[in-house]
# Entry
Amino acid sequence: MTAQHTLAVRPVTWPMRALAAVAGLHVVALLVQAVTAGLLLSMPGGRALHMASAIALLAVGLVHVVVAILVRWPGGGSAKFILPAAALLVATVVVAILGAAHVKAVHVPLGVMMFGGGVVQLIRVTSRR
# Structure
């Protein structure tokens, strides 16, 4: 095996492209969630918007996990994207429960950490190309 073969970059497969798109969408959904949190504090209909964006965030999180699994099976790619996607999904559920219970002291910081985790996942996915 030559040096060229060991340094060759694997071609980007459709599951990897889909993962990059979903990871980007996940970051956008997390950002929208933060915006609607501000609206919750500043306008009467803000609570409904924040709850609606939370449901959308949960749906995007589920899709993120499914696509991360598809990168591994049948895509043949790395499984390293599955755990962060699942962790973001679990964090979304925990943050939703904390928000419903009005535990803002944990709800807000965990939401901020989720945004950071989403950005890290997006960077990892897009740098893989």
Remarks:
- The CA atoms of residues 72 and 78 lie 6 Å apart.
- The two ends are 23 Å apart (CA to CA).
- Helices lie at 3-7, 14-42, 46-72, 82-100, 104-127.
